[in-house]
Amino acid sequence: MQTLSLTMEMMVVLGLLAFTVGLFVSEIIRIDLAAILVMVCLGVFSYLPGLGNLADVNHLFDGFASNAVISIIAVMIIGAGLDKTGLMSKVAGLIMRKGGTTEGRIIPIVSGTVAVISSFMQNVGAAALFLPVVSRISARTGLPLSRLLMPMGFCAILGGTMTMVGSSPLILLNDLILSANESLPEGQRIEPFGLFSVTPVGIFLILTGILYFMLLGRWVLPAGEIREDATTGQSMQDYVKQTYGLKADLFEVLVPDGNILVGQTLADIMDAHHLYIIGTDYQGKKVIAPMNATCIETPCRLAILGLRRVVADFADIYGLTVLRQPDRFADDFASTQAGVAEMVIPPNSSLVGKTAQELRIRQTYGFSLLAVHRGEDVLSLVETEDHPATRLGTVEFRSGDTLVVHTPWDSLARLLDDRDFVVITSDFPREELRPHKVNWALAFFAVALALVLFSDLRLSLCLLVGAVGMIMSKVISVDEAYDAVSWSTVFLLASLIPLGQAVQSTGTAAWIAQEILRLLDGWPLWGLQAGLAVLATGFTLVMSNVGATVLLVPLAVSIAVAAGGDPGIFALTVAISTSNSFLIPTHQVNALIMGPAGYRVVDFMRTGGIMTVLFLIVSLTALNLFF
Prior knowledge:
It contains 25 helices and ten strands. With about 625 residues, it is an alpha+beta fold. Helix 21 packs parallel to helix 23.
């Protein structure tokens, strides 16, 4: 091998690498701005005498059109389209039903699912698809997003090691092996790896990641905060308690087949027991804000708002079962879908002098009337400490009455233009869900996935087919697609790509590899293999994992042949170790989750540092155990 000497261009690149890491760690400026600054410096320095080969200024901004960046944009749009149909909310509900609301049970379910998915598609795609799911789980459980996204993201990266199509380096490995075989003697040629050859190693790594967060997550994950915004907000019952003294909770109650409640109307039950039935589910047909005249049919489920002791007494009297937490109604009464709102009846309203029963208010307006605030009085069907229960259906509305209602947010949005009400609740989600578009969304997602797995089209083009298909079928609008893209993530990754190219094109990467391998000269086989794993880990933090693989696999094969080792294992060690990218948010998945969770670089260094060491130990052990 030809010995490389350190050039001025290499020294400048090394200085920019140190500068970049310094900006990332210190966080003097935002991390995406730091990446843009480094890209600009790289371009400006290229015009200086003697540094003309530092970067091709005519292609300095090609990162914005790179396969990786376009793929991320497309998969964000696809994820937003699936979320727009309400599908991701249902997935979140399913995960919560299986895992409950505790961190220790949700993390392995979410992380394990994402890991399996990312073993067959790009890990950033799997992470982007599950980002809205995890966000909704955070909103419903009260668990900070920062406690959930890092385990999900890390396991998405680990999942890429489970098959030979799970990550770009493993996809590329067999091609590099075929090239290396041309220079190897017949007896030392490497057999290409099959699709599931690396599966045992990947399974060990995924289990390590899940166990790491289950056992040590309490201490290594950032504490974070629940973000208060229009999509999380305050729960319905909390708002009612604090504002109107209605100390009621939401319960889901099972009414068994043949129960004595059969045939009774909701109005009669509510009046007799001082509770509020705001949803029914009979044979899978769910009705939110059902009519008071609706009769009970069994077996069914009731969503009830009332005092805990009152609901418990009601259940005892009729032999009903009260669930510990809402199940089928979890999505419908999540704060992202519905909640409490207030509206005033103006003097010119046609409702003045009429009752809720006369107006058939549930059927007409789609909301459930919880209370009427009139002067100093609070009229409510639910008993409070200061006010007895009132039959709200028979109360005549007056001008100036404030109605406290439970309503789906889309119904409230329609009432904004109704002159019979003045809606005074303004901070609520106004997104328009399109459940009727779910088939279109799933179809284009399946098309994109099929193209990724079974065609030779570029990944970005495959994913753009799905994204454009969702826009053309009106699953998501063009403006919504633009809003779905995390542009800070796009600029972060696109701006770092020229630096990675400079590390490789100027020979800096080869020089670093040469110097480190010189230090490893004379080491035993296991030491050389570990050294290559550490080298690949370091390279993938500052350049693309594909670039690191292309550079280091030929070196690994040469070292193995010279030292009498297995060149196939050494090459595979490099390809797997390029997934060991947890220390700083330069990996696409880490960049994706950094903004939504509010992570800092020091969070990745603390949590990812331990994961990096575990990855090295487990991967090297598994490689030597199974190969």
